[in-house]
Structure formats: structure tokens, C-alpha cells
């Protein structure tokens, strides 16, 4: 592939969800693997829905995943400006071309009048088409003063086109209609502006969500009216909820991309996870590095059906990436995730604790739960033991007896992980208890935490004094 130019063109209307960032990622991958250009354009023509700060937020999300731009609102480029609200003169110029060729006209109807047309069509149980109410003035218009919307004068026909993901598609003339090109406030609609911009910016591939598929016949009609060639199209399937029965939404737990970062998900996890929502390389591989994605990505491996958002898979994948981090890299990344009680701990001790916790971390936010008892004395919570499936079968007297035996054995044990493991194994033989029972009881008594790293290593880092003190405290409580 040569001269590949892709774009990400979101509207700054709120948070960046996984569907939007997946579109950006696929466009970026296609450009990177072909030495092409990736462009960021902001389509800010719907001023009623625009949210202040959204443009900066979009850039932060792209930066989080390392999706650098070759051209765009934040880096400039030869096709500037890349903000649609700064391109209004360009849209009026192209609108005039349509007026001159008889393919656009001033819309004389009020919103209320159009609504009545809709209600009439509904009452007659037929689809509403604006072109059925096209005014007679549409035949004579040569100028447009901007006080009313400007509409496209469609020429309904059949279309056959190819989609890089969906394959060969077809539509009939009944779906083509007269749509608004420029609103009365002077701003163009998406349906008009993106076609002009993609052409002028020499975009070769338009990658976008499935919700735009129904509008393709109208877009093709407009390309013909403007006498311009259209780019290649690649339609992304929806991202579905965890049950796979509807499109993922806020009610299903869909979050802003930056929220995932705040919750301790690594950028490389998010990159790999989002890339594999609806795409695979044809192998069993599930976790991909950035370089592997650039090498292996292809539009023909994007699936047609919706991709299920599986948060358990996301957590699993994040754990995989965390375990691959070097000690120094992990140290830098957890700077904002330590429990407050760790603030006064020395650097060496915190590094030992972090090394111990690394294999158990699913997100960086798990760090306080997995480590807080290293930095502050936990309070006994016997309810945790009562609620444990195995420990709940033993009475309290047996709990105390086992903890007393453990304390006695550990008092004379060298506090290295290997020696501690040997003593614990001997204690198993002495008590006749199962590992899941005895080791869980001791772990609760010294951590009072729902999760912790391996018991011998935990005791080694805690040290003899703290371990024995906590066992005694549990016995006395």
C-alpha cells in the first residue's frame, strides 16, 4: 500500500469511549504499517452538543496510547486548519458549487412544518422522505443567503459499493433523501463537511463505526454530485456489552478511556485489548505489543459481527503486562498508587514489598489492598475467617490452637522464604490440616486482608518481630 492517509475525526462532545478510540487505533495502525500519515481532525460543527475541554481530552487519550499524529489540530500540517469551525468559508465555497449545478437549495420550511410531514408519514405508515416535500423553489435557486438551511437535492438511485470490512454492499433508491448541508447557524452538518474535508485532505481510507453505514447511499450520492472520487471505506462493528446482546453503553459500565488509566490499567494493556475487540491475526495469540500490532494488523481480519467487551479478559491481560514490567519500570508507574501509610516507609522496603506484590497485581489500584498491612498494623477482623468456606468449618478454639502452634514453630525458624515454607509444611503434618485451611488462617492473622502474596514471602518481608506480634495479637483478640 502507498500514499495511505487515514484520519480520526471525532466530535468534541464528551468522554472518549472504547469504540471511538478503537476507530482511532485502527486508523493509526493502518497508517503506521504502510509508512502513511495519520491525521487528527475535530468535527466541532454541532455547537449545541460541544463540551468544553473535550478537544484537549481527546488528545490526552491519543497520547495515553501513544497514537502520535502526523497532522492535526495539535501539530498542524499542510491541510490546516484541522478544526472544522475554522473551515466555514471552505464549506460555503463547496456548497455554492452544488447550488450552481442545481444540486442544492434553500429549505423554506420551519422545524414545526417538517415535523408535521413526519407525523403525516407515520400516520400513513410509510417512511418519511424529505424529497417528497421538496419545494418548487428548489428548481430555480441560484443563490442562498444563509438565513435558512441549505439542503442537498438528491438523485435517488441504486448503489453497489465495497467495504474493506463488510464486503460488497448494496442499497436501493428508496433510502436516499434530501439532507441538510449547512444549517441556518452557518455550520455544516457532518454529512457534508466530512466529505469535503476528506477529499481536500487526501484521505485514502475512512474508518468509522457501524452507525454510519445507513447513511452511505446519501454520501455516495453527494460524492457524485460534487464530481469527486470517494476514499476506501472500512466499517467497524459495534462493541457489545458483556452479555453480547446490545451495544456497550454507560449503563453497561462503559467508561472514559482515562478512567481506565486512573484505575491502574496500563496503556499497553488498553492498546492490546482495544485492538483485539473485533480483530485477530488468525492465531491463538491474545496479547500483542505495539510493534506486533503494527506488523500484523489488517482490515480483512476485522470481524463483521459485534465484539463483546469482556472486563475479565481486560483484567487478565493487564496482569500479564504488569508481570512483564521491569522492577524500575513498575516502580515508576505505581508512584500514585501506594497506600497513604507507605509515605514514611524507606525506599528499599517499598521495593521489596512491590517485588512481592507484582505477580498478584491485576491493576495498579490493587496495590493498597495487597500491601497496606506492610506499612500499618491491621486490626483483627474475625468475620473474614468466619466467612471463609474452609475456616468457617472450624470452631474458634481450633483457630486459636492452630495460631498458637504456628507461633511456637515460627519463633525458632530462620525468616527466609525457603525456611519458612519448610516450617509451614512441617506444621501441616503436625496439625493434619489442609494447606488451604492452615495457611489461610495464618495469612489472615498477619495481614487481615482479602488478598496477599505468597505466605512465606509475605512473612519474610514483614520480618520475625512483626509476624510473631501479629499472631499473638490475633490469639489475644
Strand order of the largest sheet: 1-2-3
CATH level 3 topology of the domain at 87-236:
Rossmann fold
> Looking at this structure, what is the CATH superfamily of the domain at 87-236?
HUPs
What structural class should be given to the helix and strand makeup? mainly alpha
Q: How does this model look, in words?
A:
The structure is a single chain. The chain has 477 residues and is mainly α. Among the domains are: 150 residues, 3-Layer(aba) Sandwich (Rossmann fold); 95 residues, Orthogonal Bundle (Arc Repressor Mutant, subunit A), CATH 1.10.10. The chain has 19 helices and twelve strands. The strands form five sheets. Strands 1-2-3 form a three-stranded parallel β-sheet, covered by helices on one side. Strands 4-5-8 form a three-stranded antiparallel β-sheet. Helix 6 links the parallel strand 9 and strand 10.
Summarize the structure.
By secondary structure, the protein is mainly alpha-helical.
Note the topology:
Blueprint: E1 5-8, H1 18-33, E2 37-40, H2 54-64, E3 71-72, H3 88-100, E4 104-106, H4 111-123, E5 150-152, E6 159-163, E7 167-171, E8 180-182, H5 190-200, E9 205-209, H6 216-226, E10 232-236, E11 239-240, H7 257-262, H8 267-275, H9 290-296, E12 307-308, H10 311-324, H11 327-333, H12 347-357, H13 367-375, H14 382-387, H15 396-411, H16 417-431, H17 435-447, H18 455-462, H19 464-476
Parallel strand pairs: 1-2, 2-3, 9-10, 11-12
Antiparallel strand pairs: 4-5, 5-8, 6-7
Amino acid at each position: 500500500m502507498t500514499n495511505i492517509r487515514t484520519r480520526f475525526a471525532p466530535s468534541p462532545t464528551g468522554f472518549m469511549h472504547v469504540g471511538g478510540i478503537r476507530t482511532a487505533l485502527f486508523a493509526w495502525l493502518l497508517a503506521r504499517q504502510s509508512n502513511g500519515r495519520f491525521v487528527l481532525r475535530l468535527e466541532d460543527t454541532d455547537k449545541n452538543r460541544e463540551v468544553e475541554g473535550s478537544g484537549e481530552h481527546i488528545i490526552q487519550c491519543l497520547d495515553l496510547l501513544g497514537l502520535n499524529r502526523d497532522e492535526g489540530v495539535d501539530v498542524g500540517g499542510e491541510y490546516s486548519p484541522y478544526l472544522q469551525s475554522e473551515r466555514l468559508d471552505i464549506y460555503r465555497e463547496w456548497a455554492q458549487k452544488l447550488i450552481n449545478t442545481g444540486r442544492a437549495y434553500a429549505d423554506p420550511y420551519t422545524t414545526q412544518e417538517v415535523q408535521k410531514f413526519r407525523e403525516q408519514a407515520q400516520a400513513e405508515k410509510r417512511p418519511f422522505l424529505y424529497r417528497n416535500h421538496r419545494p418548487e423553489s428548489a428548481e430555480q435557486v441560484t443563490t442562498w443567503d444563509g438565513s435558512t438551511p441549505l439542503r442537498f437535492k438528491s438523485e435517488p438511485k441504486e448503489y453497489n459499493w465495497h467495504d474493506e470490512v463488510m464486503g460488497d454492499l448494496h442499497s436501493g433508491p428508496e433510502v436516499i433523501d434530501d439532507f441538510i448541508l449547512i444549517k441556518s447557524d452557518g455550520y455544516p452538518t457532518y454529512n457534508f463537511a466530512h466529505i469535503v474535508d476528506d477529499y481536500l485532505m487526501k484521505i485514502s481510507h475512512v474508518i468509522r463505526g457501524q452507525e454510519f453505514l445507513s447513511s452511505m447511499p446519501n454520501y455516495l450520492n453527494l460524492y457524485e454530485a460534487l464530481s469527486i472520487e470517494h476514499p476506501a471505506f472500512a466499517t467497524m462493528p459495534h462493541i457489545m456489552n458483556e452479555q453480547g446482546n446490545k451495544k456497550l453503553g454507560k449503563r453497561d459500565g462503559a467508561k472514559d478511556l482515562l478512567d481506565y488509566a486512573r484505575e491502574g490499567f496500563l496503556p499497553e494493556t488498553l492498546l492490546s485489548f482495544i485492538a483485539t475487540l473485533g480483530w485477530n491475526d488468525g492465531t491463538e495469540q491474545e496479547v500483542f505489543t505495539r510493534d506486533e500490532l503494527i506488523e500484523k494488523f489488517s482490515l480483512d481480519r476485522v470481524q463483521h459481527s459485534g465484539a463483546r467487551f469482556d472486563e475479565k479478559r481486560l483484567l487478565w491481560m493487564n496482569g500479564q503486562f504488569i508481570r512483564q514490567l521491569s522492577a524500575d519500570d513498575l516502580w515508576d508507574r505505581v508512584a500514585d498508587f501506594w497506600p497513604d501509610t507507605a509515605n514514611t516507609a524507606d525506599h528499599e522496603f517499598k521495593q521489596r514489598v512491590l517485588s512481592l506484590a507484582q505477580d498478584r497485581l491485576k491493576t495498579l489500584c490493587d496495590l493498597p489492598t495487597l500491601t497496606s498491612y506492610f506499612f500499618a498494623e491491621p486490626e483483627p477482623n474475625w468475620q473474614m475467617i468466619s466467612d471463609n468456606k474452609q475456616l468457617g468449618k472450624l470452631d474458634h478454639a481450633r483457630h486459636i490452637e492452630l495460631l498458637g502452634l504456628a507461633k511456637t514453630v515460627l519463633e525458632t525458624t530462620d525468616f527466609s522464604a525457603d525456611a519458612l515454607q519448610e516450617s509451614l509444611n512441617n506444621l501441616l503434618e503436625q496439625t493434619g490440616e489442609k494447606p488451604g485451611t492452615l495457611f489461610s488462617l495464618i495469612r489472615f492473622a498477619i495481614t487481615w486482608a482479602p488478598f496477599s502474596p505468597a505466605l512465606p514471602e509475605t512473612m519474610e518481608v514483614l520480618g520475625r518481630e512483626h509476624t510473631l506480634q501479629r499472631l499473638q495479637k490475633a490469639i489475644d483478640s
